[in-house]
Amino acid sequence: MTIIEALVDLQEVDGRIRELELELKDLPRRKALETARLSGVSADLQAAKANQEYANQRVRSFEEDAKALKDKIQQLKTTQMGLKTNKEYQDFSIQIDLIGHDLEATENNQLAAMDDLPSAQARIDDAQAKYDAEKGGVDAFCAEIDERIAAVKEELAEVQKERVEKAKAVDDPKFMLYYERLRMKRWPVVVPLTTDGVCDGCHLVQPPSVGQLADANAKNGEAGKPQSIVACTMCGRILYRA
Fold first, then answer.
1. Most buried residue, 170, 183, 202, 217, by CB count within 10 Å?
2. DSSP assignment, residue 241?
3. Are residues 201 and 192 in contact, defined by beta-carbon separation less than 8 angstroms?
4. pLDDT given for residue 10 in this prediction
5. Helix axes 3-80, 208-222, angle to 10 degrees
6. What is the DSSP string of 49-67?
7. What values do phi and psi take at 205, rounded to 5?
8. Interatomic CA distance for residues 52 and 124, integer angstroms
9. 106 φ, ψ to 5°?
10. What is the C-alpha to C-alpha distance for residues 8 and 75, in angstroms, rounded to an integer?
11. Cα 133 to Cα 25: distance, rounded to the nearest angstrom
12. Which positions of the chain have pLDDT values less than 50?
């Protein structure tokens, strides 16, 4: 195997590592987006419950007001029984009538508030059903994402082990150093030089001398002789004749 062939093999492994690492970054983002969507459905459910609690509070408030008015009427009637003059009796009767009107209005408001309870409960039921349906799907999706994350991590560990072996096959330090430096800036690093003399990385037409060097490299590789680094004059990628 020539040094160029060893680099191409290493690059294939590095390409797989890049893909796996990108997927590892993307998977949690996809999971977060799905969870955020469920949070919106949960917010609707919480709003429905808050609306029901408000409706219940209104009913209780009117009920308490009605009880207080009834107690007050009862107190006035009890006091009225002990009055000695007709004028005092009539004054209390007027107060009792006025409070009675307030009581009637309060009880009507209570009934109206109670009429809101079924719709408030229906809103909760609808929101709960939607939440349950969505949660089931989200939970299943998140479980799949977690499984995929575990699988990607396992595969990445294996590919990284494979990379160690592929890197050993690149037995020329200067090639390895050049490759490692460039792969942080350019990808892919090792690309063919087309028959038209074009770099397959940046697509720049190379000077004839670059093509001659690439041809010489190919011949040296076939003959088992040392090869040199032939780089693109624009992007610096390692070039070889396919």
1. 217
2. E
3. no
4. 97
5. 100
6. HHHHHHHHHHHHHHHHHHH
7. -70, 130
8. 8
9. -65, -40
10. 99
11. 28
12. none
Q: What pTM, to 2 d.p., does this model score?
A: 0.69
Beta carbons within 10 angstroms of residue 170's beta carbon: 19
Residue whose entry in the numeric block shows the structure tokens 């995929």: 148
Count the neighbouring beta carbons within 10 Å of the beta carbon of residue 22.
Answer: 11
pLDDT tens readout for residues 41-90: 899 999 999 999 999 999 999 999 999 999 999 999 999 999 889 999 99
How many residues in total does the chain contain? 242
Bond into 188 cis (ω within 30): yes
Between CA 238 and CA 227 the distance in angstroms is 12
DSSP class of residue 185 equals T
CA distances from 42 to 54, 90, 102, 122, 189 (A): 18, 59, 41, 16, 48
Candidates 69, 73, 54; CA nearest to 107 is 69
Using the Cα atoms of residue 197, residue 200, residue 204 and residue 209 in order, give the sign of their dihedral. Answer: negative
CA distances from 184 to 155, 166, 177, 178, 180 (A): 22, 18, 12, 11, 7
Cβ(69)–Cβ(107) under 8 Å?
Answer: no
Per-residue burial over 93-129, b = 16 or more CB atoms within 10 Å of its CB, e = otherwise: eeebeebeeebeebbebbeebeebeeebeebbeebee
How far apart CA 4 and CA 225 sit, in angstroms, is 12
Tokens found for residue 63: 């009920």
Q: Where are the beta strands (DSSP E) in 101-237?
A: 190-193
Locus of tokens 């949070």: 39
